[in-house]
Structures are given as C-alpha cells and as structure tokens.
Design a protein that fits this description.
Number of strands of chain B: 0
CATH class of the largest domain in chain A: Mainly Alpha
Radius of gyration of chain B: 17 Å
Strand content of chain B: under 5%
Oligomer: heterodimer
Order of helices and strands of chain A: HHHHHH
Helix content of chain A: over 70%
Mean pLDDT of chain A: 87
Largest sheet of chain B: none
Helix content of chain B: over 70%
Number of helices of chain B: 3
Shape of chain B: elongated
Chain lengths: 172, 102
C-alpha cells in the first residue's frame, strides 16, 4: 500500500480514536474522561467519512457529541455537586479486568487475522454517491419501515420513562 | 485501507469499553464504557457494509443509525436511573447500591 496523504489522515484518525479512548478508560477525573470521549466520538465520525458513510458521520456528530455527551456532562454535574469527581479503582479489580480485556483483544485479533472471507478487501478509492437519499428511501419506503416505526415508539417510551424515573417524588 | 484496519480499530475500542465497564467504580464511567462498545459495534456495521456488500447496498449503515438511536435512548434512561439512585443513596458507586444483596 503506497503511503499517500489519505492513508496518513486515516492513521491519524485511527490513532486519535484509540488514544483518546485509552484516556477515557484510564484518567481519574471524570470530567476529563467525558471530554476525551468527545474526541473519540469525533474520531469515529472521521472513520465513517473514510467509509463514505456521510449521513452516518453527521448523525454521529449531532447525536453523540451534541446529545449524549451533554447528557453525560449533566449527569456528572448533578451527581457530584462540584465539577470534579475522582474515580476510585481497586487494585485487584484492575488486574483482573486488564487480564480479561487483553485476553478478549487477543481473541478478537486472532479471529480478524484468520478469517479467510475478510482478507484482501481493499478500498479501491471509487467515489460513491451520497447516501442520504438512499437511506431515506430505505427507511421510509423500504425494508426498514417497520423498524423505523418501532424505534420511534421506543424513543417516545424512553423519553417518558426517563422523565418519570428522574422526577422528584412527592411524599406526603 | 482494508476491512481489517477498521476491524482492528473496532476491536480495540470494544476491549477498552469492556475494560471500563469491568474496572470503573462510578456509574457514569460505566456508561462511557458502554458508549465505547456501542461505537465499536456501529463502526463494524459500517465497515462490513462498505466492504462485504455491493456498493449500492447500504443496509449496514441504516442498522448503524438505528444503533445510534438506541444508544441515545439507553443513555437517557441510564442517566435518569442514576439521578434516582443518587437521590436515594447519596452515591453513584454501584457497590453502595446493595439493598437487594442477600
């Protein structure tokens, strides 16, 4: 594979994603972890752009960075009182969790390296047409119509449920 | 870029998410780990959709969008439960919430 600007940017995004995810799981200050998670989510959005999934990348930025991350920061603020919260980690748990994680990573990498059907599938660099129109067609006039409706009901249920659970209980 | 590049990135993200869920002792940090896991899943869907199917078939991307929607619903309910737990127990460490423990 020749080393062009495109591959350079790809490896940049990959490194950014993994390094910031590493910060998310290791840093002790939860606010720093939340902001590092933002970098991870942006990195994944960049990888979506490389996969020519433009609508997916935009959705990732809008929903994750604009919605879920703000929700997480609100959660941090409302449950800590002050804007800083240290995360306590037990030593034995760290060791055991690390062991499980490394074993899992080894398993996954072995599977990825040894599955014949996944080998030699390169991105030939052909430009695909934008996906937004086709996604709209699939969701509203295609095989994903029923899942789309179900998921909209699910969102409504989650909205009502979240408001119901988190409201202050009035005791008499 | 090959399919395996994306799969390796996704595998690392998944492992880091599992590590966060296993070791963190703070419910919000666990939520961040779950978000990492969901992101790795969506990345896998998009990558397989790009490489394993003909270019005009983008069902994998649609599934990834459904995944994002589910993650949003999950985060909202998760944080609502965390708020209720904080109000009840004064803490969001999972170890402190042990009323049902025998």
């Amino acid at each position: 594979m020749e080393f062009t600007l495109k591959t350079f940017i790809f490896y940049g995004f990959a490194f950014l994603t993994i390094a910031s995810a590493l910060v998310v799981v290791t840093v002790r200050n939860i606010v720093h972890a939340a902001f590092s998670l933002m970098v991870t989510l942006f990195g994944v959005a960049g990888l979506y752009v490389f996969l020519q999934a433009d609508f997916l990348a935009a959705t990732q930025v809008i929903v994750y960075v604009g919605g879920i991350l703000v929700l997480i920061l609100f959660g941090v603020m409302m449950t800590s009182g002050r804007l800083e919260m240290r995360i306590h980690i037990e030593r034995g748990q760290l060791l055991l969790g690390g062991l499980v994680a490394v074993a899992l990573l080894m398993l996954l990498l072995t599977v990825i390296a040894n599955t014949p059907a996944w080998k030699n599938l390169t991105d030939d660099g052909t430009k695909l047409p934008p996906t937004t129109e086709r996604i709209g067609e699939l969701i509203l006039n295609g095989p994903f119509l029923l899942p789309f409706e179900v998921v909209s009901v699910l969102l409504l249920v989650a909205l009502i449920g979240a408001a119901m659970i988190s409201r202050k209980e009035i005791r008499d | 870029m090959t399919l395996q590049h994306y799969l390796v990135i996704s595998a690392i993200l998944f492992t880091l998410g599992i590590f966060a869920v296993l070791t963190r002792r703070n419910a919000i940090s666990i939520l961040m780990g779950i978000e990492l896991i969901l992101n790795s899943c969506n990345l896998n869907f998009a990558a397989f959709s790009r490489f394993m199917t003909p270019p005009e078939d983008i069902s994998g991307q649609v599934i990834a969008i459904f995944g994002i929607v589910l993650a949003a619903a999950e985060a909202a309910v998760f944080l609502a439960i965390i708020l209720a737990i904080y109000r009840e127990f004064g803490s969001i460490r999972p170890n402190d919430v042990d009323t049902l423990k025998g």
